[in-house]
Amino acid sequence: MVTDTPAKRPGPLIDAAREARRKGDWEEALRLWRAARDVAPDRPTIYEGEAESLAALGRNEEADALLATMVVRFPDNLALVIRAAEFTQRHGAAALAAQRWQALAQHFSDRPAAAIRAAAGLADGGKFNDSEAVLIAAGERFPKNFAVAAAFARLAERRSDWTEALRRWEATRERFPHHPDIGPAIEAASAQRDLVPPRRDPVPATAPAMAPGAPEPGARIAGSPLKDTIRLMLDRHEDDGGGHYAPTSRLARRPQGIVARLKQLFGRRAQPGPR
């Protein structure tokens, strides 16, 4: 019976790559992640490590293209899609990051955790109304999910609208009267409300109107919108055969309609950061 040798198993390579990362040896970490990818091409974690190493070396364009490629390959891997959106946000492409968070919320509309993370990402980028819309849609879809209700209340806290935050926590208590986090949250919001002057622009209690042609919050577009849209982002990148992603002028032909709309939203890529 033939058994795998250590060289044919990704575990030792992954461990070595993580150790190189810990030491800050990003060139070695990149080499090891790529070696691990050759052995186990179906492990998303490996690609995350490779993208992180590329970014640490200032090769942001390659890192972004690699993450986009992996989202196409693993469109239902929530952690990987989150990593791609986080990367865009970290490297200053705020508008594109917001669009990716919206796509994430739409594609994973059946996952409360996706809505919560997308809403947080939108709020991090200052898109509070869009964040509100995502959480309102999630609250309607998952009325028994405490985490969604709590995220909605905490979003008002992030805006320093303590009156609204208190109102939301009290509404949450009516639905989840025995949850241990409710009492402390109400006490904290009440104390902050008494200290902070009320906002002059209270947060609307309903989702803002969507732009013409835009999908409703939480709507799931037929097919795999996230996969299609990030394929569009890859139209200008291709693998040179050695795992390096380089710009190309190739533009794939795509059907009109919803994909054209998504191309408008996602066709722009994050600009590479300083080398």
Description of the structure:
The structure is a single chain. With 275 residues, this protein is mostly helical. It has a domain at 110-218: Serine Threonine Protein Phosphatase 5, Tetratricopeptide repeat. Helices cover 61% and strands 2% of the residues. It is built from 13 helices and 2 strands; from the N terminus they run ααααααααααααββα. It has helices spanning 10-23, 26-39, 44-56, 60-73, 78-90, 94-107, 112-124, 128-141, 146-158, 162-175, 182-195, 225-233, 258-266; strands spanning 237-239, 245-247. It has a two-stranded antiparallel ribbon with strand order 1-2. A hairpin with a 5-residue loop joins strand 1 and strand 2. Helix 7 (112-124) packs antiparallel against helix 8. The longest helix has 14 residues, at 10-23. The relative contact order is 0.11. Mean pLDDT is 76; it is low at 1-6, 205-268 and 270-275.
